[in-house]
Amino acid sequence: MNQQIIQEDDIRREEEFNARIAAGKTIEPKDWMPERYRRQLLRMMSQHAHSEVVGMLPEGNWLTRAPSLMRKAVLLAKIQDEAGHGLYIYSGAETLGTDRSEMIDQLLSGKAKYSSIFNYPTLNWADMGAIGWLVDGAAIVNQTVLAKCSYGPYARAMVRICKEENFHNKQGYQIMAVLMRGTKAQQEMAQDAMNRWWWPSLMMFGPPDKDSPNSGDLMRWKVKLQSNDDLRQRFIDRTVPQAEAIGLRIPDDKLKWNPQTRHYEFGEINWEEFNNVIRGNGPCNKLRLKQRRDAHAEGNWVREAAAAYAAKHARA
Ligand code: FAQ
After folding, report:
1. What is the pTM of this model?
2. What's the CA-to-centroid distance between 40 and ligand 1, angstroms?
3. What ranges in 33-151 are assigned the alpha helix state H?
4. By alpha-carbon position, which residue is closest to atom 42 of ligand 1?
5. Proportion of the chain above pLDDT 90, given as a percent
6. How is domain 23-315 classified at the CATH fold level?
7. pLDDT score for 1
8. How far is Cα of residue 270 from the mean position of the Cα atoms in its chain?
9. CB of 206 closer than 6 A to ligand 1?
10. Considering just the CA atoms, what is the radius of gyration of the chain in Å?
């Protein structure tokens, strides 16, 4: 009898939850939610937070070699912003009941994923332009939509993050535009960065819809409001004219504007490369994890001091 009442209660709560989603209302931390919704969000948000944090490393590589004091100050501010984004999203993810330290342990043990894009090396200064313009550009396309997702803390974090990412995107494009107005060597450097970052940026949107196991749940619950392929297409459509405006060539011989669909057609993405990177075998996966583990170990004294300070003040 009791069992039957519990089951009926669960069905009623799930119906209420679905009705809230259908009505476009947000789900808040204290609201009832299906366990699978909670786990999917935690997976996605923790991966996103890890991406922001690991994403500081490729750019950090160029801090000591920025070509001017102004460029260095801007890059430093951008990297600091990414750390802040990581913190907002970890805080949002904690509202789903998992402690940040647990999420970080999963990252450092290699169990958790982070964005494939950060496993590529930054070989020249133009890579700072390509990351800001293409990587932050792809992040904005994805996150502008996530800012309307059904989970309140995630949606609200995205609003602020997107504002900052817009600044990152503009500074990256400006680096590329300046290089393209420079010497032949500078133009070649910009084109080289474009050639290396274009395809990995398209992979950031995840596998094609037909191979995306999580999209069904996420779209039904309005966590994702647009599919991986739709967002990828939107990114291509907005980025190609920007490249053309400064004289950069997109490294895709099949790229072609289709006036009927009003979208660009593009060549085949190397999904084998993508799968290889997310399995841990990209060019920099091992280096990135080592850098994060070292940074975590070196920061241990800070965490201990903060905990001791908090304990002392809790007693006072
Ligand atoms: N990298 O079923 P789906 C940034 C995995 S922030 C690695 O389609 P889903 C800011 C996926 O986890 C960039 N793994 O997955 C910045 C799943 O594996 P799992 C990060 C990927 O979740 C700029 C499996 O493949 N942004 O750049 C990737 O529905 C500059 C099957 O895929 C976010 O995280 C990938 N690219 O869709 C910072 C945004 N794609 O977990 C510093 C939020 C897929 O089942 C400097 N996340 N996988 O084992 C999302 O929108 C989604 O999670 C997707 C993937 C679209 C990334």
Report:
1. 0.96
2. 12
3. 35-54, 56-60, 69-94, 100-108, 126-130, 136-146
4. 55
5. 95
6. Ferritin (1.20.1260)
7. 55
8. 20
9. yes
10. 21
